[in-house]
Amino acid sequence: MEKKIISSSPVSIYALGGLGEVGKNMYCVENDDTIIILDCGVRFPGVEFPGIDYIVPDFTHLKNNRNKVKALFITHGHEDHIGGIPFLLQNISIPVIYAPKLASALIKNRLDEHRLSDRVRISEYDSNTKIKIDSFNVTFFRVTHSIPDSFGIVVDTEEGRIVSTGDFKVDLTPVGADIELSRISDLGEQGVTLLLSDSTNAENEGYTPSERNVYESIDEIFKHTNGRLIVSTFSSNISRIQQICECAVKHMRKIAIIGRSMEKAVEISRGLGYILIPDASLIDAANVKLYKNNEVVILCTGSQGEPMAALSRIAQGDHKDIHIMPGDTVVFSSSAIPGNTVMIQNMVDQLTRCGADVITNSILSDVHSSGHPSKQELRLVLKLFAPKYFMPMHGEYRMLRIHAEIAQSLGIPKENCFVMDNGDTLIMNNGKIQRGYAVEHGSTYIDGKDIRGLADSVMEDRRILTNDGMMTIAISIDSRTNQLLMKPEIYSRGMINQNKQKVLDECIRLVENAIQEKLNTKTNFNELKVVIKQVAGDYIYSKINRHPMIIPVILSKN
Q: Whole-model pTM?
């Protein structure tokens, strides 16, 4: 049988998400025949994206090259690395997803929710797995992060070796398996052409505190809290959930888990042995009232202030089983995702108004440790990998820039460090790398489960409504005689408070005069709408310095 020969071709490396932002991670390695994808995540919207549930990458480039897409590799099970998979699968066919054990289970659950389980094969890998995809050879190394089963990925191509660290930190006393520093060192000695490395904490000097430090702080809180404890964290922070549950069992508190994503994550992780909770320690939320306050801990979602999450509903008094009482202690065991600070502050204020004592991460209360590396860890990993070329990834632009400066301080030439944007491409050919063409990229805004997403124009309309309000201006005309049958009517929302009627009356007068003048000439409905928008828009801006959305409505007698 004749063996198929795959010719060598330059390799392109680019991100469709994850550069210039925290979240939405999606990185691609491509040659003439093949595309493999590393991660496919979501970004959680802040207040600047009203009504949006998720932001996912624009998959247009992959749809246009769908026949080349051969596999998706997942580094770990956090939503900003797996949350976009259902939306990707509804756009293109992926032959196989390779993922660690825990991430595989979380992906299968997510696909079941979207009724997509039959769309793709999921194959588990570990640090000993070797996978060949056409001319790409893929291997893995274990890292420490805030979720078990986290890995970096090595892609060996005919043009050179690419290493992605995934999300990691160098935690020497981790909750779970150690980072494989010896494997990282071996890869560095063998030679790394291009390193892609996590930049989320590149602004922070020193080392990121160990996850073990958090256990001690949480244990102190359990020890000194006499009332109910309500602890909120990310549902995917499996290591943290395990620590909280360990403390609860140690201090003989029953555990009530609230929030659909939290319940599912705990169920899956218990099944795989990553979270160990005796059945006797778990109670339903409805049964919390049957126990004394100092006998209960409530573990819930909502640490980012999300309006529909469990903690928000508890704070607003909308949860059917749990309400805040004076003497409750609420612990935010997480850090703020960029863009969510205002929502979190509002949540803390609301909880305090209800009588709760609120504990957030601070110098005095170390209730959260990041899962990402600070500067000393970045230096260590750069030293061990000793890459010829470097591309910082996963972070806002300033984080990427700082990470590149760290690499340069360690001897990597400035011209070999690439601070990229989503869609920018690096071309690797014969072990050398230079900037290349740009691929189509962007964001898709998911409202509900509509995979088509919302266009940027729709988001702009929402921002206008949020910031400037709206006006509907209705006129009624006789199209045969070109006569205005009655004065224009204006309906406004979210615009002005003081002197509202006086401003609207003057706006009506100006619109009426403009329409009367326009009707004296040959015109059409579209031209009348333009006149209404221009006259009303200019006048309103002159009075309130705002540009509300103006919706003209024309009623015709004939």
A: 0.81
